[in-house]
Structures are given as structure tokens and as C-alpha cells.
Write a structure and sequence with these properties.
189 residues, two-stranded antiparallel ribbon, globular
Length: 189
């Protein structure tokens, strides 16, 4: 007889979401994001290069084919079934070609590679968002210090959950606030 053991998951294990940018040829890669609520809107926060499909400094397409993402597939926590996932697709552009995401005024041309995409389809989704008002205990981190990140580096998962990785280095930056975000112009190819 096999006995199953339940383990207690910490919220960061389920707040990081697996993302796949998709374009005309299909899946273009994978990424990590998390949810943040502001008023009645839930935003997916991820990197600008994920939604734009371009290198943040050179502007060149990241895909070897030159394809750019048109939509994101997001693996959300399934409502009422923690540990199970529901895949949702979010379009990245309005019908007029303007991006749906908000970006920091210093990015992507500056050093801020982050966007907030307002989500449309949250049916059957358990929103396990990051709460900036209650981020957890403070930690002291110095520039160039090793930093543990919970996410999906190179598409790797731990049984469908985000994994803990230590490969990033801390550098000074400013995080955007709602007042600092801007809507980018129309899409250029």
C-alpha cells in the first residue's frame, strides 16, 4: 500500500505562473509572470521582451525565425483545485494594432524590462496574486549578490509548479507604480 503525504505549499510556489508566447508559427518560448490586482483589474506582470518578442536593448526579434508574439498562453491556478492548472489565452494587441500592455516609461528603451498586461479571461481561475502591500519579510540584498527566484527558468517545472533557482544577480532598478506606467504606441514589425 502506497501512502501519500501532503505537503504544505507556500504561496510563492503558486503565484509564479508559466507563460508561453505564441505567434504565427506557434509557441515561441516560455516565461514566468505573476498576477497583481489594482482596483477591479487583474494584471499579469512579466518582462517586456516576453510580450514584444524583441531584445530590450537592440530591438531585434528574439526568435530565429523573426516571428513576434501575438498572444500569451498562461497556465493559471484552477479555481478550487490548487495544484491543477487551467490554460488561458490573452491577446497582446488590440484590433487597431496597439499593444494591450502597460510599460514603464524607462522601458523598453531604458533599463526596465517589465510590463503589466490587463487580463480579460479569468473564468475558472483562482487569482493567487502577489500583494505589494504585504510582500513578506524584508531581506538585505547587495548589488551582485546571489538571489533565489521562484519561476520557470528555461521551461523547467517541478511537477507543474514553479521551481527555486539561483542564477540571477541583483542590480539597482526602480519598480513601476501604476502612475508611472504608460501605454506603448502601435505595433511595428
Amino acid at each position: 500500500m502506497v501512502q501519500s503525504r501532503q505537503i504544505q505549499l507556500q504561496q510563492p510556489s503558486v503565484t509564479s505562473l508559466y507563460i508561453e508566447p505564441h505567434g504565427p508559427p506557434g509557441r515561441l518560448g516560455n516565461a514566468t509572470g505573476f498576477l497583481v490586482g489594482h482596483g477591479e483589474t487583474v494584471y499579469l506582470v512579466t518582462n517586456w521582451h516576453v510580450v514584444a518578442g524583441r531584445h530590450p536593448t537592440t530591438g531585434q526579434p528574439l526568435s530565429q525565425t523573426g516571428a513576434l508574439p501575438e498572444r500569451l498562453m498562461i497556465a493559471h491556478n484552477k479555481a478550487g483545485e490548487l495544484g491543477n492548472w487551467v490554460r488561458k489565452t490573452e491577446e497582446l494587441f488590440e484590433t487597431d494594432g496597439f499593444p494591450r500592455w502597460l510599460e514603464h516609461p524607462q522601458g523598453p528603451d531604458g533599463a526596465i524590462d517589465v510590463v503589466a498586461l490587463p487580463l480579460v479571461d479569468l473564468s475558472d481561475v483562482e487569482v493567487m496574486g502577489y500583494d505589494p502591500k504585504n510582500p513578506g519579510p524584508s531581506i538585505a540584498v547587495l548589488p551582485s549578490a546571489a538571489l533565489n527566484i521562484i519561476g520557470f527558468p528555461f521551461g523547467v517545472t517541478g511537477g507543474g509548479l514553479a521551481i527555486l533557482s539561483t542564477f540571477c544577480r541583483v542590480t539597482p532598478s526602480s519598480l513601476p507604480t501604476r502612475e508611472k506606467l504608460r501605454t506603448p504606441g502601435p505595433r511595428s514589425r
